[in-house]
Amino acid sequence: MFYLKLASRNIRQSMSNFLPFGLSSVVMFLMNLMIATILFSPSLKKLPSWGNFAMLLCLGLIVLTIFATIFMIYSYRFLLKRRTKEFGLYNILGLKKRQIVRISILELLMMFVATVVAGTILGIILAKFLYLFLIQLVGEHYFDLQWSPLAVLVVTVAFACIYLLLMIISSFSIHRQSSLELLHNASKGEKEPKSRGILALLGIIFLAIGYYLAVTVTSPLDALTKFFIAVLFVIFGTLLFYMSFTIWLLKRQKRNKNYYYQPKHFITVSSMLYRMKQNAVGLANITILVTMTFVTLATTVGLYSSINGFLNDYFVRNTIINVNTTQQRSNTLVDQVAEKNGITLNNKIVYEMSNSMIGAMNHGKFENKQKLSSLTAVNFMTADTYEQLTGNKVHLLGNQAIVFPAVGSFNENQVKFGDHTFNIKEKISEIRNFPSISMTASNWLILIVNSKEQIQPVLDAASKAVGGHNTLGFETTISADLTTKDAKKLRLALSQYLADGDKPIQRIDKEKEQAISGTEPSLQSYEDTHQQFVSFAGGFLFIGLILGFTFILGTALIIYYKQISEGEQDKRSFEILQEVGLSGKEVRQTIRSQVLLVFFMPIGVAVVHFGFAFIMIQKLISLFGPTRFGLLLLTSMGTIAVVAAVYYIIYKQTSRAYYRIVER
User: Fold this and answer.
1) Phi, psi of 433, deg, nearest 5
2) SS3 content of the chain, % helix, strand, coil (to 5)
3) Rounded to whole angstroms, how far apart are CA atoms 201 and 387?
4) Distance in angstroms (rounded) separating the CA atoms of residues 125 and 384
5) Helix (H, G, I), strand (E, B), or coil: what is residue 523?
6) Which of 46, 211, 32 is nearest to 610 (CA)?
7) Which residue from 30, 24, 37, 66 is spatially nearest to 134, judged by alpha carbons?
8) Strand (E) positions, 249-408?
9) pLDDT value of residue 160
10) What is the Cα gyration radius of the chain?
11) Global pTM value
């Protein structure tokens, strides 16, 4: 009971120390609980595409739990450092270290109970508002969120593990230090670090490698595989940049006598250099968090804002029907089914194109290789089909072809497919009434040739090269304008022509007495596809906003901790400077110079990181559809502006704490 009362009294009397840790703990618990409540609620299963939502929410919960663990360890270590003097006094007054550990554990248990109680009450209330926000983003209409006790249990167990880890850290920290070290640890400063030119160079090399990987991606799949590698190089490069390169730069400024021996430069450089090892980790953490915020928000907002552009490029009419058989038979099948059901196909467009050949294009020679950096998709179209789509007459002789690089570029004079060569007559920049399709390949070529007879040997050879399991042929696409009711009716009618397994359809049209052959027709409507995209992108944006808010919160608290700790360390230094003759105005100018440097260096470096990552982000978003560079750039700039404004507000608020301590 004695230890329990002592732990309770410590929390009450040191509320200024415990409050930041307690608030961060409650907020982290709250964020996790809100996501878990929606994830485990029976209401989620009542939404269309709930499986996609569940996957995104589960991913978000995992990321938030990992971030909460890292951040709470950081927050608790700051609290522990401020209380080491108190623990040292306990030890000198007669308490053994195991008794001090018991007090520390009881404090953590009380904080854990307070976190669970406060976080659960707030989480249950705020989860309903968060769910309403999610419903608005995904365009649904089911607003009743049912509460699930499993959500509270899962998050409570996760935080119990986090607090158990904090107890271990506390016990280890108290046991490994002597009474004297405990007394002086809170005020212990950092020694001036040595200038390590090799590590500084290594940091620049790591950043250069990360930047190079980001700007040289050639396809969405290439970006997907290189993204995490580039992130690791940038993270380690950022740490080394602050820990070594900045120290090297400060020492270089110190050797410049004309620059160094000025009051504001002398104090700023000396102060930053003396404690740069400690500052480096904090500055690197802030930079990485701000960069993560930029990337997360820009990607999710960019994807959500591009939905209409994706679909407008793809749907040349509001309904698309694909049938994997010849144009004549496909057209006949769809017309007959539509006629039987009283459906009118308005503004109909019909074209035929070969299945995609996937490989690598090397100086005009197509090879069946799956190298992601040069992945190329090739489709063939006949001159007749091109004329039907565009109304433009073409005259191709022999093996001449017209090339349309729908994705990427092509500047060769010929294309070789094994023993078959096509000479390029001209290159065109667009095909009217032809959709822009999302491609994972870095290049997508459409070759317009005279006839199918020229193409079929190439398709047969490609089929054999990949094992011959799927025979490459032609697929017909029919685009038309239909009402929502007619689109649903036609999809249902066409579903009666499904094949069993991989066998072709064999149906007899009794009225026409004609056998209709083909494989499974598929129908896509603009409205249904738009809803699917909005559901996915809305859920993606929802998770992005939650993570972005959490990263900003983490940034704010790390900056606050830095301001408090640096203010306490700088207070005595500035008092001495005033005693030796530095005016109050010069002190304030020096403080302002140092604070601005510490604050705005991370966001400046984060903007540079994001600038190099922009191309990779564009490629990743293009996995879902063609991206508009201007819209994505505008969205990214808006995201940076908003985050920078929030960052500035954080700077203004937390810098006051620093000024109050230093000028006290």
Assistant:
1) 65, 20
2) 70, 10, 20
3) 59
4) 63
5) strand
6) 211
7) 37
8) 319-323, 346-354, 357-362, 365-367, 375-382, 400-407
9) 93
10) 32
11) 0.71
